[in-house]
Amino acid sequence: MIRVLLVDDQPLIRSGFRALLDIEDDIEVVGEAADGGEGLALAREHLPDVVLLDIQMPVVDGIEATRRIAADPALAGVHVVVLTNYGLDEYVFNALRAGAAGFLVKDIEPDYLLHAVRVAARGDALLAPSITRKLIDRYVTQPIDAVAGTKLDGLTNREREAVALVAHGLTNDQIAERMVISPLTAKTHVNRAMTKLHARDRAQLVVLAYESGLVAPRTS
Description:
Helix content: 40-55%
Structural class: alpha/beta
Oligomer: single chain
Number of helices: 11
Largest sheet: 5 strands, parallel
């Protein structure tokens, strides 16, 4: 059973999402909150698999709530998917930097909402690396983050190569082909890099690859 927590200051949004999720045999809504602070408390209480979290809320906004969830070792298995009205924007980018696994626009089709919850619950990055790259190309700032660069020092050369390919939007199968290794070995390189870098998913690998200077943003 996939346990979901809804965090949004609009009751109609919460009730609409709940109505869609509750009819599924494999999904259970374990709680609702109207701001990020309350959402964080409920996340600690219920330990959901997925938190659907509005970016813009009073008291504690979604970006700060995401950051606190990502920083709490007790919530390591909780996957945050942020909700937005606007699609690709700086709020979404900052949420990814804070630890979100991806984002959904609030007028999402019901079938994709259900798909997204299941993908996030598996621990997969909901947001395609290519979309993450578009965000970073638009919003990443210079100079290069020296701290982020230092984090990469613990990677092997092959792990660094795999992270760079993730940042370019390649799947594990495509990484395997590019590196002339098996898909299982490619997956192992990516997973080891995620562990060493304390990345919650592939989306965070992409962010770190750009901010460390391992991959350069496009200039046009």
